[in-house]
């Protein structure tokens, strides 16, 4: 585990500059659909199939994504604000230069996904499945993540700023230049031994002491 004063490489945040957008008039998403320079406002995509679709220079505001299938979708240079949904399927999707603001998601499937230069700001995401995902230059800021599963994932230049991390699973994860020092709550239930490559504060180290001891098989008992 690295010392808290180690210099870590900062994440590169997305710089999204949307062009003048056209209001989207589509009825339903289409598999492998191509959406460029569109504004989606409070669209209901629940249960629709947009697998393999590409969203480029788009704005999605207040859209419903319950059980929406976006497997292998690509979201590029876009801003998603106030999206909501349960069981959204973004498995093996690619998100690059994306801002996700005030999202309310539950059970979102992001396993095998690639996130690069992504800012997740505000909102709450329950039980996100990020197993074997690749995160590079990702910032979680002021959000709540409940039981995120990073099993087998690779996190490089990832920052947690003023966010709540509850019940995180880091089993078999690889961390490189991951900054956890400014997390408001840091709760790791599995895989705490994978924190090599991350930087935490002294206070966080004390809070994780019991979990660390259990991870390496150390029994802690009162002195005689």
Q: What does this molecule look like?
A:
- This is Pentapeptide repeat-containing protein.
- InterPro entries: 5peptide_repeat, Pentapeptide-BTB/POZ_domain.
- It comes from Streptomyces lannensis.
- Pfam families: Pentapeptide (PF00805), Pentapeptide_4 (PF13599).
- There is one protein chain.
- The chain has 224 residues and is mainly beta.
- The chain is built from two helices and 16 strands.
- It starts with 21 loop residues before the first strand and ends in a 9-residue tail after the last helix.
- The model is unreliable at 1-6 (pLDDT under 50).
Give the integer mean of the pLDDT values. 93
In terms of quaternary structure, the protein is: single chain
Major sheet details: 16 strands, parallel
Kindly provide the radius of gyration, computed on alpha-carbon positions and rounded to a whole number of angstroms.
Answer: 18 Å
First-residue to last-residue Cα separation: 31 Å
- Range of strand content: 35-45%
Shape annotation: elongated
Per DSSP E runs of 2 or more residues, the count of β-strands stands at 16
Helical content (DSSP H or I, runs of 4+): under 10%
Enumerate how many helices there are, as a single number. 2
Low-confidence stretches: 1-6
**Helix- and strand-based class?**
mainly beta
Order of helices and strands: EEEEEEEEEEEEEEEEHH
